[in-house]
Amino acid sequence: MSNEPPNAVFSAFSFVGFILVLIPFYWHAEGANTGTCLFMFWSALGCLNSFVNSRVWNGNTLDVAPVWCDISTRIIIAINVAIPLSTLCITRRLHLITSASAPKLNKRREALIDLSLGLGIPILDVILSYIVQGHRANIFEDVGCWPATVNTDWTYLLCFSWPIVIGFISAYYGMRAMYNFYSRRKDLNSMISSGSTNDSFSYQRSLYIRLMVLALVDICFTVPIASYLIYLDRSSPSYYPYASWAWIHADFWRIDQVPATVWKATTESVATIELSRWSNVLSAFVFFALFGLAQEAQKNYRVFGGFVKRVGHAATGHRFEKAHSGPVHPVMFSGTTSSGFTTESRMFHSGKKTRSSDGASRVSYIDMNVVLDDDAEIGLKPMDKDKYPPSPAHDFGPY
């Protein structure tokens, strides 16, 4: 394993991923884009969890934080399904929005559905995972806390199969959304070049495309990786037929400590662990590449930069006033009375893109729907809304 990068490299990437994926959170939350907010939340949580684990247990397996391991392992289990579910929320919403026959969407109801999928099912998966949890936790050197799921039949049904099933459902909605978008492209293009809604509709289409790319990338990675990890586990000598509840939970409160020389002894175990923890980092970087460098992001960066600049000017002016104890020229404070983050109107209302006084745009893909009327014209309408289980030293689940 001499070709592996140092553990510090993973720590650095996971911390940077945690920061980057949260940068677009403000304007996506303002636009009530539940699916993308869930994706950012879970990706950031996964990166932060991996970063803490890789630093605390870098080069050691000391049981220094058993309560943290209880929390950390459940985060890992939840994220195993949460990120694919966030993608499902995005593709499902895109399908509804691009469908010409879709009724007006109730935003509150759709947000509740997304939250039920993106938060409720991961919590359910954490609860179900206790059925096949062999002991309290594992601690892998350099990796940190890891779930202690026993490699048995029920584990595949209750834990490992979720990403594959969710991935196929997301693929279905994604293909439907792409078909809807492609079949109406001529009408959309004519609308883009027809008048005052040019900028808003062009931006809307760009946002749809980037959301679709995000969903496709996640689907293309989720299903193959989850399938490969299941294959590795099922063909592993650590697989055991399910015996009983008592057999699974015997000596439950132990925490097994696994040195790097043990878990790195086989290619299969290295592939299982490294693919699992690097996938969160990859998700964070892909999201930032699509949304943290886009047009609306640059506008928000300029707004934030202008706000910081005005605050700096104000602070400099106050210091100058205090030092000279005399009147200050009014020009010194020009522009400091207005906030850099003014309240913005709806980005797309009656087919027009509105902006705040600072030029920042709200990012939303749920406030609009594309509707074809009887004359095949496109309009934009605001939408409503043995005795013991096997030792984990020989048991590496696909988390």
How would you portray this structure in words?
The protein has 399 residues and is mostly helical. The protein has one domain (7-297, 388-394): Rhodopsin 7-helix transmembrane proteins (Rhopdopsin 7-helix transmembrane proteins), CATH 1.20.1070.10. The chain contains 13 helices and 7 strands. The longest helix is centred in the middle third of the chain and has 37 residues, at 198-234. It comes from Artomyces pyxidatus.
Q: Uncertain spans, ≥5 residues at pLDDT below 50?
A: 195-201, 319-363, 365-399
Number of domains: 1
What share of residues are in beta strands?
A: 5-15%
Structural class per helix/strand content? mainly alpha
CATH topology: Rhopdopsin 7-helix transmembrane proteins
- CATH homologous superfamily title: Rhodopsin 7-helix transmembrane proteins
Organism: Artomyces pyxidatus
Protein name: STE3-domain-containing protein
SSE layout and pairing:
Blueprint: H1 7-22, H2 25-30, H3 34-56, H4 66-98, H5 107-129, E1 137-140, E2 144-146, H6 153-160, H7 162-183, H8 185-192, H9 198-234, H10 245-248, E3 255-258, H11 260-263, H12 267-292, H13 295-324, E4 348-349, E5 352-353, E6 368-372, E7 378-382
Parallel strand pairs: 1-3
Antiparallel strand pairs: 1-2, 4-5, 6-7
Helix pairs in contact: 1-3, 1-12, 3-4, 3-12, 4-5, 4-7, 4-9, 7-9, 9-12
